[in-house]
Amino acid sequence: MEVDDEEEDAEEDEDEEKEDSWWVLRVGEKIRVKVSAEMQLKTFGRERRVDFVARGVWAIKFFNEEDYRVFVAKYTDCMFENTYGYEATEQNRVKVYGKDFIGWAKPEAADDSVWEDAGDGLLKSPGSATPVRVNQDLREEFEEAAHGGIQSLALGALENSFLVGDSGVQVVKNYSYGIQGKGVYVSFDDGSYRGGSSVAHSTPRKALLMKAETNMLLMSPMKEGKPHTTGLQQFDIEAGKVVTEWKFEKDGTDITMKDIANDSKGAQLDPSGSTFLGLDDNRLCRWDMRDRKGMVQDLASANTPILNWNQGHQFSRGTNFQCFASTGDGSIVVGSLDGKIRLYSINSMRQAKTAFPGLGSPITHVDVTYDGKWILGTTDTYLILICTLFTDKDGKTKTGFAGRMGNRISAPRLLKLTPLDSHLAGTNNKFRNAQFSWVTENGKQERHLVATVGKFSVIWNFQQVKDGSHECYLNQEGLKSCYCYKIVLKDDSIVDSRFMHDKFAVTDSPEAPLVIATPLKVSSFSISSRR
After folding, report:
1. Is residue 59 helix, strand or coil?
2. Beta bridge pairs of residue 164
């Protein structure tokens, strides 16, 4: 593709009506696009080429190495300025990222040894001896129609999993090849609960299993498009009915929550569990279904029982929390609107042990490995994978949940779609709900990452992403970006894709089945980690 030299560079776009100005890439008359993550620009150093999305997929080929390098450097600077509103100087990079995280701005200067050390450890771990199926990488085991209107997946680690829909819950059986079975369908509006309001009038956005998977907490937004709510419903799966409606209250005042999560990765298996985590824009807390004396509340006599604020903190400044997740030991990771990712230890929700600066895009979903060593953040256009390991002053290896990470912090890695796949996914389709495969015991290592984009379910091999010598990373500029993934394409927009519990991995496959739900169907896939 040939273009005039003077039109290859990014140029500043001044809008007379607005004070805002930003850099755009203009090539001839056909291409004029704001420099941003939405361009999905991918560099090919060996070929002196860049591919990108701008109402179609384009490639620019450079005649010599110097022009290519100048363009990539200029693009990087323009991207920084468009994202943060500061000129791309050394001083401003320190201002944005902080001196401890300068490796995020200059990945070539970052200490990547923790990635390699972690990779070595995985190869030596006992779980990696599992044989892999060599003849097939990804195979659909079966697909069946659901009761309709699936809103979310609540996968169980015991006998059953649950498809939460507009008007009820479908109970399905867990097998080593996936989930299946036209099990019991329990309707929310069967008249069994006569509380002040009925869950039937609002669609549950979030379902959380607890009490050895015999109960489910259902969270429904108060307003369309807003996740906040003032309470939730407790659904007894065995009884097949909503048994109570809980209210969020602190110091006698009603408050809202935007997300809930289990206390730890395996907490839903605890039969006596009575606590769970709550998140709002500026609140992080633990709720207890028992009263302040630790007594179980009499749900029958209480009109709307009040959840007890067991532990937590209300932040005065705008933290703009968006999402959170917990590790195996109950440490908490929180993602924010400004892209920051904060790590809280099991001992304190008041002050983060570590706060990663983010890359300018809001974190819409976050997950963490059971051991707390790896964090996966979802943004609209890319996933960010962070290693939390560091060596303290005594030479001990810790995670960022247990101590402040100091300045030897490795650069994150990005997981992206190629410009072509990004274009095929559609302009309005964004990454959603990226998560690790599911383990709940020490010594086991997550093996895959999965995310949803429109009709695509996208799967990465975790070990491959961590391998610094992997072919994806050769001749790349900036943060290492991995484009080696598998795509499962469905006929309809995907509601959720996630791996079943590790215990459902069979002997000839190193990974538990992958379950993919669309509003009307649920499919199960077996997967092999052969590269």
Report:
1. strand
2. 152, 169
